[in-house]
Write a sequence for this structure.
């Protein structure tokens, strides 16, 4: 099973959703075989490249209720082992960090990308790190096991930028307007940082759906005429059952 998670580094609920989904995977038979890939999404695509204080930015955007918003997320995060420090957190553009996640996936694999995502979320929300700064991003990447020279050269140029922009456009085309959004096998979507028990039920239901579709396809293929020398029998790609 493949799960693509549309998520932003600057999204506190994305951190909670990641932790809860991982708790579900720990309880799900075969959870270690589920491929998890993070896809980019920017809540504030026009955020500045120079970091400013999170508290001041949130207050400007949401007014007095911003304090209660942060307090609620902080309390919820504690239950999932997340130590939010919104006084230290910085508001900054996350495009560079998404490029780094793209590098991790394409050159190191999905598991390393998941590790890097955790490191970036912790750096942003718990450690007050500027995740828009190339040097700090390189430090985080090296600590996660990526090659420093490669990361430094990659972030210094535009490599991966077009691919990340294409993925951001794909998210918009899919109709994703809030994160985290979990897309299972490219067919079923679940939005929000759901409870681990909810994610577990979804994993079980998707597994059942996949098994049922596989059985239906096997029956359909068995009923198809055998191909002759003139050509091959047509078969469905499975997407019509979405």
């Amino acid at each position: 099973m493949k799960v693509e998670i549309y998520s932003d580094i600057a999204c506190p609920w994305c951190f909670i959703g990641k932790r809860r989904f991982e708790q579900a995977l720990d309880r799900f038979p075969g959870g270690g075989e589920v491929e998890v890939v993070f896809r980019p999404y920017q809540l504030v695509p026009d955020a500045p490249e120079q970091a400013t204080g999170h508290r001041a930015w949130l207050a400007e955007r949401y007014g007095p209720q911003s304090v209660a918003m942060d307090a609620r997320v902080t309390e919820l995060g504690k239950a999932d082992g997340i130590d939010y420090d919104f006084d230290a957190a910085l508001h900054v553009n996350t495009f560079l960090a998404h490029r780094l996640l793209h590098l991790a996936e394409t050159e190191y694999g999905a598991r390393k990308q998941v590790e890097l995502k955790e490191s970036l979320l912790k750096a942003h929300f718990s450690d007050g790190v500027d995740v828009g700064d190339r040097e700090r991003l390189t430090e985080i990447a090296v600590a996660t096991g990526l090659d420093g020279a490669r990361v430094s050269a990659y972030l210094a140029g535009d490599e991966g930028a077009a691919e990340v922009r294409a993925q951001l456009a794909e998210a918009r085309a899919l109709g994703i307007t809030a994160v985290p959004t979990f897309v299972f096998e490219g067919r079923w979507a679940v939005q929000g940082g759901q409870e681990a028990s909810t994610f577990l039920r979804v994993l079980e239901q998707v597994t059942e759906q996949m098994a049922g579709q596989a059985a239906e396809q096997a029956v359909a293929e068995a009923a198809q005429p055998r191909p002759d020398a003139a050509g091959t029998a047509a078969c469905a790609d499975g997407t019509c059952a979405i």
